[in-house]
Each structure stands twice: as C-alpha cells, then as structure tokens.
Amino acid sequence: MRKKGLAIVLAASVAALSVGTVACGGEVVDDITADTNPADIVSDEVADAAAWRTAFDYSGRTNFSYKETCERSEDGQVVFRYSTVCGFNPDKYSYDETNMVVFVSEQENEQGETVTVGEEINNVYKCYAAVIDEKNYEYEYDSENDAWYRSERNYDVMDGKKFSLIELYGELYNGYERFRYADGVYVGEFEDEYITEYSVKIKYGRVVYISYVSRMENEEDPAVEEIRTLFIYDIDKTTVTLPTSFKNR
Fold first, then answer.
1. In the list 10, 43, 176, 178, which could disulfide-bond 49, CB 3.0-4.6 Å?
2. 128 and 93 Cβ atoms separated by less than 8 Å
3. What is the largest CA-CA distance in the chain?
4. pTM
5. How far is 14 from 184, CA to CA, in rounded Å?
6. In this structure, what are the phi and psi dihedrals at residue 35, rounded to the nearest 5 degrees?
7. CA pair distance 73, 5, nearest whole angstrom
C-alpha cells in the first residue's frame, strides 16, 4: 500500500512595500480598503503571545468589512468555490455571497470512451439586517424577480451576526509559538488529518489577512486541496447602505 503523503503549498505572496500612509503629524493612517491587494500588505511583528491574541480579538469592533474565499479541488478538478463579502456598522449588517459549485469529472462510458461529466451551479445570495427605531428587519434579494423584500422579525436580527476570529481560528489564536515571521508574513504549520500551512498578516495591532492551503493524498481517496483566504478591511470606515426600493412581507 502506498504510504499516505501530504504536501503543502503556501498561499501567500508578499510585496516589498508596506500598506499605510503617514499623516503630517506622524500619525499612521489606516488605508486598508476593499481595493487593497493583500499581497502588498507587509505584516507588523508583534511583541509576544499576548499581543498576538489581542490582534485576533474583534469582539469590541462594530465597524468593518471582510471578504472570504474558498476553493476545493479533488484530483485537480475544482468541485467547490465561493466568495463572501460582509459589512458591519452599528445596528446594520450586509451579506453578499456568490457560490459557484462545479462538478466536473472524466469518466469512461460503456463504449470505453473517456467523457467529461459535470455541471456548474451559480448561486448568488444577498441580504441585509438592520435595527431601525428599535424594530428588527431583514432584507433579502430575490434574483428571479430582481427585487428586494423586507420582513420585520420578532428577534434581534444582529444576534448571530457577530464576527469572531477567535471562534473561526481558535487554533491560530492560541498558536503564537508555532508561527515564525519572515519576509513580511507570519507562517505556521498545523497537522491533523490534513497538514495545513497558514499565513497571517497583522497591521495596526490587528489581524487583517489569513490564508491557508491544505492538501491530503492517499491511496483510497482523491487528492484533495483546499485554499481559503480571509481579508478584513475598512475598519471603522465601513458604511452599510440599506436598499431603498423594496417590498414588505
């Protein structure tokens, strides 16, 4: 039996210049926006494990945006891909997800011919949540009718919409000792069923970018690779604008 092998690919490129400008008074101005290329961000170094954990803690922040992407492949064929963009400001939340699920494979038919079998499924989901005059509303987009619908809810629509890096990446939050800083990025390796190599970038005392690539290959199962990124931007500068044309439900 072929021995199980695992390979790692680092999903991060680092440019030579840091992102950020300096105002006349010497104050650093955070200019990490949706247009920033995460590859151009040069991570700051943190002093110790306590500073590292603080950088992961977004519990006190109510104004920021993030984009998350994921792509999964089996034997070199993409089987799943999605991109999510979320925005938060006090009492408002936006969520925009694009799913492209791809099922493509080469199979042998009854005649012994190799044929390509598969389909692409594209789904787009958009929604907003807002507390207005102490009332809770959710807005959902109907792509078939090209229309927004608003519903009043009898629960706190912001509950459950909280963003927690600590919950998402708890292993990294407590893993400062397993990371090394080199060429403007922190890199760490974690091993379980997969071996995964993470890249983390910290600016202005907080995590702004995480990426990872994990791979698993064995004799019984397809070779699996997953690439995921998380980019946080427009901190304290995010504006969520609710739909102005909608139908009430």
1. 176
2. yes
3. 76
4. 0.79
5. 7
6. -85, -5
7. 17
Distance CA 189, CA 195 (A): 7
Selection from 60, 82, 47 nearest residue 176 by Cα = 47
Tokens of 240: 């969520």
Which residue, among 165, 231, 164, 227, has the nearest Cα to 196 in the 3D structure?
Answer: 227
Report the amino acid identity of residue 60.
G
Neighbours of 62 (CB within 10 A): 17
Q: Contact 212/200 with Cβ under 8 angstroms?
A: no
Partners of 149 in the beta sheet? Answer: 140, 247
Q: Return the DSSP state at 42.
A: P
| pLDDT confidence tier of residue 11, bands split at 50, 70 and 90 | very low
Buried b or exposed e, range 93-126, using 16+ CB within 10 angstroms: bbbbeeeeebeeeeeeeeeeeeeeeeeeeeeeeb
Of the CA atoms within 13 Å of residue 156, those in its CB half-sphere come to 6
Q: What angle do CA 7, 13, 19 make, to 5 degrees?
A: 150
Please report how many Cα atoms fall inside a 13 Å half-sphere around the Cα of residue 107, on the Cβ side: 7
Distance CA 140, CA 249 (A): 10
pLDDT digits (tens, 9 = 90+) for 70-102: 998 887 778 888 899 999 998 899 999 888 777
Q: Supply 237's token pair.
A: 């500068």
For β-strands 147-153 and 247-248, DSSP reports them as parallel
